[in-house]
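Q: What would this chain look like folded?
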Amino acid sequence: MQEVIRGLFRGAKRGVMTSKQGRNFYKGNRTGSMGRHTKHGGYVIDANKVRTFVVPSLAGCELKPYVSHSSDKFKVDPPTATDFSTQKIFNQE
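A: My prediction, written as structure tokens:
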């Protein structure tokens, strides 16, 4: 009886649950379903639930997708308070 009472005082671990914890609990990864399960054990994909990514046309784009390893390295200094005071956004003249 003392072990039961001791267990009540300790309480359950209420930390953040990851997808690797729990034996009979499926947390998932917040992606949602793409269809439904059938009564015969199959799975039917619903075309309206499938994620589609709309990619804009890149014809005439001057940007390149990758950065060359031979490009020059540069460092940008963080802005200071005087940099913010000289901008027109913050000056209400």
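The chain has a mean pLDDT of 77.
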